[in-house]
């Protein structure tokens, strides 16, 4: 048994904590690799391994020496100790030194008489709870922040980083140098990738490192080289190059190289030159800032001359392509916030050509906004100036949205007691758009001011067994209009007053039920709703923001046939329906919801977008430019029969169903079926079917971009299958049954490993050219690859958000 003694020595923090504190950018040198157990590697147990990406983990062994009460005390254990007359000491055998949380093991340790340094040799190991360093020899300066370890191997436990360096030096309290070094996050013995450098310098105080002659090695094959590289060694943001994104498609190669600029702790910018072989050089940028009570971003892109074909017609060849989107939001006080935004693009196809993930663009418009609101205990106020650039090409004048310059809103509610309540809704807006008034429908030609007031009064009587709620709204709307150069007989100061009356009522019956040894409550909820809106002449009113709503379950119970305030649809109908729910007592979850309902009309619905109370819509055989269903929808005596179902079959399977059936023509108007599978391990399967009769949406007419001159029938299959903790398989197939063509095909594989990840995706899709014609649709396709080096970064486009939208329920494994 070795001798054990302890005493206090002036040993500096260099012993361990200072030596490794800056090594969050780890290194591996060119020496011989150590066995895994020498790196404190602990393989997973047999039951754990199957669920882990890595084969094990780094675990620091227990300290060999007990902690002293005084953390400055140096504890020593050795087999032999020789002392010279002048005070020199040579410790031999299995030597262990501990001071605080730092412990040093070596075969020989030499302490000079002046006790200014420690020289250690032979199979040395230093640990401090966060890291391990092994080496052949080391010199530790006890009164200075300097140290040297030769032929070092090291591990950072929490970061899962390991490496080697032929020489590891601590230059001062916060600066380190590693010579002939590399690092990796791969398991011991599996160097799938390494970053190697002849000279690495780490600055812990400033949080960054630099490397000369840096090389990225994959299976010992160099694939990337930097003469000089600057990189972060902590969680702080640092200026430097980010990993590039590379894409391949039928159009060629797409390479983007981001550069990150850390301007200040609350300001940063990313500048991204992007080279596309078929188009040229596109410069993108984003600037972000954070102030005391506000924050914002400014982003944009610029291509001086488009060298490629756009939408298969070369229409933008040689032209500038650009966009800008600036946002700022902040707080005025605890009850009031404000927002500013300005967005614009050179053309309506900019994001179709440049901005979409995997060829997909989710931007439909560019917003311009200046808005401030107030949320009080009684009143809610909102003031804004707002407009949109609609991203379609070609874009006709009639499709351009109106600007609101400004729009002022004031709303409030009052509970009057006994179930009686009142509401106040009010808005004043000036509408404007830059169009030729002579080239749009007359009802859309005007600009001007609209004052819209909708006070309401109602009463709701509610018991556990049911409720009844009569309600009346008064819609008062007044305009001041300007038709510009348009010749018109319409008045410039029209008004409208109309009352919207409804009575909603329902009963609730319950019974206890036992199914499959589980307790449930089943409800039966019949519902009766009556709505009356008198037919009011609105031919003199403009059409700024109204749209007739397509029929649905919710429309059974709503007195409003239109959105917006320019049209109030005439209505005299009663809706009847019944709903039943199966509620699991154990958790209160709705396991099954089934409902069926129908409206019965007592009068035709004459009011449409024209606002004429005396004329029914023309028949399609009389005018081919009208919605083919519009006349029938206006004159039918009952709505389609609406049936819906939501069924949580079990913890993994669920389904949803909606069916709108015309029992007079014995024809389905719209139907949708969804079957969903969710597995606890992350497997997802979705199967959907959609059918919609031509002209089902009453607001869409031939010539609109969203109109299709056929009944739409589509199948949608998507899945994501986690074949193992390492492998995700994803796919989607969207089929246009009507035209017998695939709208989207996607297949991909994601490989998840302990130290790297690979995402390979093939996609083919139909681009509709922003028109209603299928004749000018064309197919686009691409093969997309993303490679991620865990702990270092990745190359390729990030597509996780696109997968989540395309495959509902899928949560990609983070790369």
TrEMBL record:
UniProt key word Transferase: no
Pfam families found in the cross-reference section: LptD, LptD_N
Protein keywords: Cell outer membrane, Membrane, Signal
All residue ranges annotated as the LptD C-terminal domain in the record: 320-725
Ranges for region Disordered: 607-634
Domain Organic solvent tolerance-like N-terminal, first and last residues per copy: 82-207
One term under GO cellular component: cell outer membrane
Compartment(s): Cell outer membrane
Organism domain of life: Bacteria
InterPro entries documented for this protein: LipoPS_assembly_LptD, LptD, LptD_C, OstA-like_N
An annotated GO BP: lipopolysaccharide transport
Range of residues in the leader sequence: 1-29
Family: Belongs to the LptD family.
Function: Together with LptE, is involved in the assembly of lipopolysaccharide (LPS) at the surface of the outer membrane.
Subunit structure: Component of the lipopolysaccharide transport and assembly complex. Interacts with LptE and LptA.
Name of this chain's protein: LPS-assembly protein LptD
Gene name tied to this protein: lptD
């Amino acid at each position: 048994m070795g001798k054990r003694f302890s005493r206090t020595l002036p040993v500096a923090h260099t012993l361990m904590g200072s030596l490794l504190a800056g090594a969050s950018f780890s290194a591996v040198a060119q020496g011989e690799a150590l066995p895994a157990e020498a790196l404190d590697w602990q393989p997973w147990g047999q039951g754990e391994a199957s669920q882990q990406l890595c084969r094990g983990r780094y675990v620091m062994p227990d300290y060999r020496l007990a902690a002293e009460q005084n953390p400055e005390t140096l504890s020593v254990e050795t087999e032999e100790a020789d002392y010279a007359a002048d005070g020199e000491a040579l410790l031999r055998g299995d030597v262990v030194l501990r001071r605080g949380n730092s412990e040093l093991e070596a075969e020989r340790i030499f302490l000079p008489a002046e006790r200014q340094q420690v020289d250690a040799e032979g199979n040395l190991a230093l640990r401090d709870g966060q890291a391990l360093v092994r080496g052949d020899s080391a010199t530790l300066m006890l009164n200075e922040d300097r140290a040297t370890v030769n032929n070092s191997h090291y591990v950072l436990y929490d970061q899962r980083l390991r490496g080697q360096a032929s020489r590891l030096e601590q230059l001062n309290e916060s600066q380190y140098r590693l010579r002939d070094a590399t690092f990796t996050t791969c398991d011991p013995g599996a160097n799938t990738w390494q970053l190697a450098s002849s000279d690495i310098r780490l600055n812990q105080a400033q949080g960054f490192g630099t490397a000369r002659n840096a090389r990225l090695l994959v299976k010992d094959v160099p694939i990337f080289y930097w003469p000089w590289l600057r990189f972060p060694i902590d969680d702080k943001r640092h200026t430097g190059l980010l990993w590039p994104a590379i894409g391949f498609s039928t159009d060629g190669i797409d390479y983007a190289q981001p550069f990150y600029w850390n301007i200040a702790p609350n300001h940063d910018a990313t500048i991204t030159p992007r080279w596309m072989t078929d188009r040229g050089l596109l410069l993108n940028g984003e600037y972000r800032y954070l102030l005391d009570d506000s924050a914002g971003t400014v982003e944009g892109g610029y291509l001086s001359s488009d060298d490629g074909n756009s939408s298969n017609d070369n229409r933008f060849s040689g032209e500038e392509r650009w966009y800008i989107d600036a946002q700022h939001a902040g707080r005025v006080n605890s009850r009031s916030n404000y927002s500013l935004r300005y967005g614009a693009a050179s053309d309506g196809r900019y994001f179709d050509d440049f901005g979409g993930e995997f060829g997909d663009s989710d931007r439909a418009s560019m917003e311009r906004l200046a808005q401030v609101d107030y949320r009080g205990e009684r009143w809610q106020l909102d003031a804004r100036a707002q407009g949109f650039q609609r991203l379609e090409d070609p874009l006709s004048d009639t499709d351009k949205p109106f600007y609101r310059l400004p729009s002022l809103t004031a709303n409030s509610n009052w509970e009057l007691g006994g179930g009686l309540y009142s509401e106040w809704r009010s808005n004043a807006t000036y509408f404007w758009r830059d169009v030729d008034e002579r080239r749009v429908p007359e009802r859309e030609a005007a600009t001007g001011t609209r004052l819209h007031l909708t006070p309401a009064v109602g009463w709701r009587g509610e018991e556990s067994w049911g409720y009844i709620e009569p309600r009346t709204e008064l819609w008062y709307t007044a305009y001041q209009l300007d038709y510009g150069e348009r010749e018109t007989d319409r008045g410039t100061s029209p008004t409208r007053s109309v009352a919207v009356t409804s009575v909603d009522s329902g009963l609730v019956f319950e019974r206890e039920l036992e199914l499959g040894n589980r307790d449930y409550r089943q409800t039966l909820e019949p519902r009766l709703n009556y709505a009356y809106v008198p037919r009011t002449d609105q031919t003199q009113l403009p059409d700024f923001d109204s749209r007739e709503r397509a029929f649905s379950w919710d429309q059974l119970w709503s007195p409003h046939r239109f959105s917006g305030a320019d049209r109030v649809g005439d209505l005299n109908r009663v809706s009847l329906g019944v709903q039943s729910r199966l509620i699991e007592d154990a958790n209160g979850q709705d396991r099954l919801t089934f409902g069926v309902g129908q409206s019965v009309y007592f009068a035709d619905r004459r009011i449409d977008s024209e606002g004429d109370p005396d004329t029914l819509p023309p028949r399609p055989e009389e005018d081919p430019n009208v919605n083919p269903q519009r006349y029938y929808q206006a004159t039918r005596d009952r709505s389609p029969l609406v049936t819906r179902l939501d069924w949580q079959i079990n913890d993994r399977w669920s389904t949803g169903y909606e069916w709108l059936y015309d029992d007079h023509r014995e024809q389905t108007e719209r139907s949708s079926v969804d079957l969903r599978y969710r597995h606890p391990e992350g497997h997802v399967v979705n199967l959907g079917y959609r059918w919609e009769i031509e002209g089902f949406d009453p607001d869409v007419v031939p010539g609109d971009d969203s109109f299709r001159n056929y009944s739409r029938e589509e199948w949608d299959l998507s899945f994501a299958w986690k074949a193992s903790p390492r492998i995700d398989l994803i796919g989607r197939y969207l089929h246009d049954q009507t035209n017998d063509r695939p709208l989207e095909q996607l297949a991909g594989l994601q490989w998840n490993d302990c130290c790297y990840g690979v995402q390979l995706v093939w996609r083919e899709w139909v681009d509709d050219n922003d028109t209603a014609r299928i004749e000018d649709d064309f197919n686009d396709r691409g093969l997309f690859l993303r490679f991620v080096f865990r702990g270092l970064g990745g190359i390729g486009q990030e597509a996780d958000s696109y997968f989540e939208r395309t495959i509902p329920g899928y949560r990609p494994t983070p790369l």
